[in-house]
Design goal:
- The structure is a single chain.
- The chain is of the alpha/beta class.
- The protein has four domains: about 60 residues, no CATH class; about 55 residues; about 130 residues, Rossmann fold; about 80 residues, Nucleic acid-binding proteins (OB fold (Dihydrolipoamide Acetyltransferase, E2P)), CATH 2.40.50.140.
- It is built from 14 helices and eleven strands.
- The radius of gyration is 36 Å and the shape is elongated.
- The termini are far apart.
- The C terminus is likely disordered.
């Protein structure tokens, strides 16, 4: 027997018993026994039909809300519920003595329900404001305690051995740094995971703090990995592999969060909304998400901008080794690429096709598509210089 069938049967029995008790109250002599049986049967049938809808559906709805809510939302809601019930208990003491229309019997229940809902909703919606308010109060209190403790330490330190002071300072500053690092969190976008460079960045130690991967980002990544398109499927599977690599990396902490932004269907909008609520940055390489987040005051860590910032700076006259990969547009030109994808156009490099050659940079152009570097083979410049030297000597002779 399924759970739904069991609930239907229990609901029917409860409804029939309640109807029977009501009928015994109203008609102890059973003068209208036929009508009573009909009412009892009707209540049982009605309960059999609607029992799952008034029990299972609310249960599933509440369970889904709890599953999607973050731990901070649950804690804030519990505190708000307790505060609302305490206020309702105080209010019921004032309402209960009222005898008019039996208000003192039913109004306290409505007041308790209303205050519980309002206080719970207010605590969840304004949890960030409450956190900042109480956090500033606690920080002020702790700051006063630290200042008084520091004054006492300074007074005691004049009599203590000077070799103990560096140890105390190191212990104090070490604890403070650990606390700050625990509070540093970064939301991760799907594009940054699929891109893969985030794993290389974290391995270098430049990312400090916890990488937060929301559940809806993970679901989007799985949806891409299950795509019928082979290219999208490969990108999704690569993203899952990168995420697994991040979880195994001991230098960074990765957390899968169940937090969600209600009434927001798009993944990018959910990320921006969560970032605004949590006051955390987003790491991505999506240009559109970057612009939208900037407009809403959310800090963005763009991997493409980071890669552009750490590109090697080449100046005219510098020497480098490049492999000629293809022909250029002009006659005799060869084209090679740096590790970051920057195109190198080598004059007279066609003859070195498929091999590495030492070149000298002649000029650097910055275009909309990126940087373009022009160079010529170093051997050719040396040969031209050596051939020009005898001519100058001949002329002077």
């Amino acid at each position: 027997m399924s759970v739904k069938t069991g609930i239907r049967l229990v609901g029917s029995v409860v409804a029939a018993v309640v109807a029977l008790l009501v009928s015994l109250d109203r008609d102890p002599a059973h003068k209208t026994i036929g009508l009573e049986i009909g009412i009892i049967a009707g209540c049982a049938i009605l309960a059999f039909i609607i029992a799952p809808y008034v029990t299972l559906l609310p249960y599933y709805w509440v369970r889904e809300k709890i599953r999607r809510a973050s731990v901070s939302d649950l804690i804030a809601g519990a505190i708000g519920l307790i505060v609302g019930l305490c206020i309702a208990a105080l209010a019921s003491a004032l309402i209960s003595p009222i005898k008019l229309w039996n208000i003192g019997q039913w109004l306290p229940i409505l007041v308790a329900i209303g205050l519980a809902y309002l206080c719970t909703a207010a605590a969840v919606w304004k949890k960030e404001d409450f956190t900042r308010m109480f956090g500033s109060m606690f920080s002020a209190i702790s700051e006063r305690r630290r200042s008084s403790a520091a004054a006492r330490e300074e007074a005691d330190g004049e009599e203590a051995d000077e070799r103990e002071e560096p140890t105390k300072l190191r212990s104090r500053f070490g604890k403070k740094t650990a606390t700050r690092s625990n509070e540093n969190k970064i939301l991760v976008d799907t594009s940054a995971i699929i891109d893969g460079r985030i794993a290389d960045i974290t391995e270098t130690g430049f990312v400090s703090g916890t990488l937060i991967v929301p559940r809806f980002v993970l679901e989007e990544l799985q949806h891409i990995a299950d795509s019928p398109d082979s290219m999208r499927r490969n990108r999704g599977r690569r993203g899952l592999d990168i995420l697994k690599r991040l979880q195994k990396d001991p230098s960074v902490s990765v957390e899968i969060s169940d937090a969600d932004a209600e009434n927001t269907p798009e993944v990018d909008a959910k990320l921006v909304k969560l970032a605004r609520q949590w006051h955390t940055p987003i790491i991505t390489n999506d240009f559109n998400l970057n612009r939208v987040a900037d407009l809403q005051g959310v800090k963005v860590l763009n991997i493409n901008e980071l890669a552009h910032a750490v590109k090697p700076i080449l100046l005219p006259g510098e020497d480098m080794t490049i492999k000629i990969m293809q022909e250029g547009k002009e006659l005799g030109q060869g084209v090679g690429y740096l590790d970051d994808g920057t195109m190198i156009v080598v004059e007279g490099g066609k003859s070195y096709m498929g091999s590495s050659v030492d070149v000298t940079v002649t000029r650097v152009l910055q275009t909309v598509a990126g940087r373009m570097i022009f160079a010529h083979p170093k051997n050719a410049s040396n040969a031209s210089a050596s051939s020009a030297a005898p001519m100058r000597r001949t002329g002077t002779a």
